[in-house]
Every structure is written in C-alpha cells, then in structure tokens.
Amino acid sequence: MEYLNKIGRSRVFGWGAIVVVLVVMCLLPFVLSGGWLSSVTEMLILALAGLAVNLIVGYGGMVTFGHAGLYAVGSYAFALLELSLGVPFAIAMILAPFITAIAGAVVGWFCVRLTSHYFALLTMAFGMIIWAIINSWYSVTNGDNGLFGIPIPEMLKSIPSYYYFTLIVVTVSAIIMKVILSSPYGVILRAIRENSTRVNFLGVNVRNYKWLTFTLSAFFIGIAGALFAGFTNSVFPQFAYWTKSGEFLVVVLLGGMFSFIGPMVGSVLFVFLDKVITAYTVYWPFVLGMILILCTILFRAGIVGFISEKVLRQGDRQ
Amino acid sequence: MSEDKCVQPLLEIKGLGISFGGLQAVKDVHFDVYERQLLSIIGPNGAGKTTLFNLLTGHLKPNTGHVIFDGKNITGKSPDQISRMHIGRSFQKTSLFPRISVYENIQVAILTSRGKSLNLFSPARDMYREEVYQVLETVGLKENVNSIAGSLPHGAQRRLEIGITLASRPRVVLLDEPAAGLSPEETESLTQLIQMLARDQQLTIVFIEHDVGVVISISEKIMVLHHGELIANDVPSEIVKNKEVQRVYLGEESIWNS
Q: Which helix (H) or strand (E) element contains residue A127?
C-alpha cells in the first residue's frame, strides 16, 4: 500500500513538473532577448557539467577539484577534431565525450587509489597538468591564445537554434544519468558513499566501481565541454583551470548535492546571479562568496535539500 | 553430530596466526566448520575474536596458516573476493548505510550478491522486492522498511546489520558479536533469531559473543579464545566443566552457575 501511495504522489507530480519545465524551456526563445537566451544556454551547459560532477561528489561521496581539466579535454577534443582534422560538427560532438571518457579513465585510475582529501588533491593535480599541457603546447592547442572559429553548421548558428540543440542534448544526457543512477549500479554507488567498507565485504571491488563512476562522469562533462566550445566557437586554457572546477563545485553545493536536480537549480542560480550582479558591481565573486557562506551555514543540503526538507516536514504534520 | 554426515568440512582453519608488532593477536588456531553447524566463539575482551574474523574474511592477511573454504585455499584473498565465494559477515561495530532506507540497505546486499552490480540501465526500485521483504520479515524489521537506516534505534540497527549479511545469501555466516550493546530482552530475542536461522533456514553460523550465558543454550560447539589461542573447542556441556576455561573466566562464575 505504502508503495502504491508513493507512486501516486511523488512520481506523477515529478513527471508533471518535468513536463511543465520542458514546455516553458521550449517557449523561452519567444520571450527572451538574445542576451538572456545565451545566459540560459550557458545555464543548461553548466547544469550538465554540474550533474556530471555530482555523480562523483553527491553520489560517489568524493570531492573533485580536477573536473575542469576533463571539461577542457571535451572542449579541445571537439575543437581540434573540427579545426585540425576536419571532422564534421556532428561527429566531433559525438567523439568528444568518448575521448574525454578515455582521459577520465586514465586520470581516474590513479585518483581512485586515494580517498577523501588525498583524492581531491590528486584530481586537482591532474586538472592542472591538463591545463599546463593545453597552455604550453602551442603547435597543437595554440597555447594561451586559445582556438577560434570552430565551424558550426548553418542551421545552429542563430542563438535560438543553438539553444534548442543544447536543450535537447542536455535533456537526453540528464535522462540517461537519471536512468543510470536509478539502476542497481546507482543504488550500490550510494551505498559506497555511505559505507565503502561494508560494500567491499558484500563482494564489490569498490575501487573499480569508483573508477567506472569517474569515467562516466568524465563522459558527461565531455559533452558539456563540447557543447560550450560549440556555443562560443572558441576554446581557452582557462577552461581547464582549477577555478573552473571550483565553479562546478559551487553549482553542486548551491543547488544541493543530495538531489539529482540540485546542480541544475545551482547552475540557474549561478548564471543568473552572475549576470545580474555583474551589472551592478565588478565584485561579483565577493557577493558569490557571501552567498556560498550563507548557504553552507543555513542550507547544508543546498537549496533543493532545504526546500524538500521543508516540504517533507509539512507533509509529516498533515 | 553433523560431523558424521559430512565428509569434508565447509570451512577449515589451519594454524592461523597474526601478530601486530610484538603482540601475537591470534596464535596457531585450528578448527573446522561443517555445513549446518551453529558454532560460537567466546573469550574475554581482547582475546582476538574479531581479529580472527578479520583473518577469515580477508580484512587482514595472516602471518601463518591457511583458511580453506569448500576445498579451496582462500588465504590472503581480498574481502570482495571472499565475499563473492559466499562467506558473509556482520560487524561488532554496527556497519550500515545510514542515510538510505532500510529497504535499500537490504537491497544493496542482494544486488551485489546476485551479480547485478554492473547493471546500469534497468530500474532498481522493484528488483528483488520479494526477497527484501523476506529478509526483513526474518529479522523482524518489516514495519521499518521505509525508515532511514541511521534513524533506527540501536536494537533495530543490530538486526539490520544481520539482515544485510543474510541478504547476501552466504554459505557461512560469521556474526561478530550480534548482541553488542543490547538489553537482556533484546539479547534474548536475538538469540532466538540466531537459533531459528540455524534450525529453520539451515544456515551454517559461527558467531562471536563475550557473554557465555548467551551461547551455552544454542551452540552446537563452543570455542574459547584466550590471548589469541584456542584453549577449548567442545560441546557446551564439556566447556562448562573445562578447568582452563573456568580459570580464564574466573570472577565470572556466577554466569556459569546460572
């Protein structure tokens, strides 16, 4: 009975909300100006990056400071495939995440051998190595000048069309991630976060499991990287810098790392605040810092965690 | 009695030993476990009981000796390898998945032991629902199925601890002091649970306990560990008469008499 109740309430409501949000998203190009639509595109891409990072942080229980490195691998793989090898847009878009996944598998192989802050530091070190390579390998990456003029198909050149393209890719990616996290793999991944020793004693090679998670996360952040490169038609070494990793973590923490939609809410808030606050002051990072401090003190489970707790409590009272 | 029925022991421990620096924590321990036996290991605090379990389940690598399971040498294998051979253990210090539901706590153990850990695309929600409820029924936690594991009272957590171990369908169940921290009433019902598992579900169980009173009534055989050495391994009626065991437990005679 309880089980039926659960379906009756949360699930249907959940689907309903998703449909409403998607319909609104589809209508946005008719109401928003180009500038705002670009910001929403940015939100979508950042949301996807946040979801990918949250696979590791929220579900895997490991903090990564190196995902910007992998994000940049996605961007540069996409850009170089198009610019240096003349690969068509669609193929480059498909190959980039796979290349990022391979890079993620290599980096992850080393990182999962460590835990907690050692893990975090090693991811950061790898991220910075990737940054250093991109920044100094002029013959291939054009170093700190970045790469410009990545060709985009005619039909995706307008802001609304690239927005729709991003919306589709991000939605499909999010659905795939949700499916993965609802599978036995997802259940066991959360169990590893809770108590890896016990899972080990239940017959799971925890290290390989984390490695797979790292690789999956790299795949999805590779999609985000490629999307962003296509969005701006250019790539820069800053994509790999550790502050970019910090941005992903902020998105995850702001929205709430214990819920699937947390990073999406976080990214909407992040990009929105960025756009609004920079209009008034150049000290936007200062304001962001204040917001983060408040968030970590007041809403430890992020905005989504805070709201769902309120709703749950309300539900208990009735 | 089961020894007559079975040709080969399910689990053989031969000369197992480990030392930490100068401390010989477990020393030359020999014993056999036959299928469907209910054995207990007793001994004062620090006798090396948990260390012995850690050696059997791969958490520690022994300096000497072998562990043979079902005719295969499993000495030095990793915990996940040993677990995949269906040796299950519970922990003295409760080891659950605190922030997920009781349902998922049990489900994790079922999923991992049925080779589903690399299934990435089928929804897990209803997988093995029946089995989860069966296990919860066995350990008496059916009402708590949707509770968050960490919010359960201590007694229920101890039962969930055993439930997770049982859910992985082990051929040998090693229970590390399942009654740790329980009230006398809770200990009594837990003892009944263990007895029921051995009798009705025909499980092979080895369990650790420091309270002698708990084990006397239900164990087929009792092993007494003292300073890492097995000083006795016999049926309860003989253990009670054993002079050396009495000496180890000196000062706790009241327990023996009751």
A: helix A116-136
